[in-house]
Amino acid sequence: MTTMSSREFNRDVSAAKRAAKDGPVTITDHGRRSHVLLTAEDYDALVDSDELMGDRLVIEGDDVELELPPRSGSSLRIPTL
């Protein structure tokens, strides 16, 4: 992923647009990420996806069963100040 400062971006927007053709361009402000530049095609692929992120995490096959012990209030205590 290409990274450029906001100053570099302002000086050469065309270079940022060219770099975005190869992947997202991170733009930093005072050394911190502030924006990400994508091509319209990449953006549309993210937004128009019918698949939700949670659906991507689903494992095909049997459901997983998880048994949790009952919660008890006995482990709770009032803090001393």
From TrEMBL:
Belongs to the phD/YefM antitoxin family. Residues 8-21 have a biased composition (Basic and acidic residues). This is Antitoxin. Residues 1-27 are annotated as: Disordered. Antitoxin component of a type II toxin-antitoxin (TA) system.
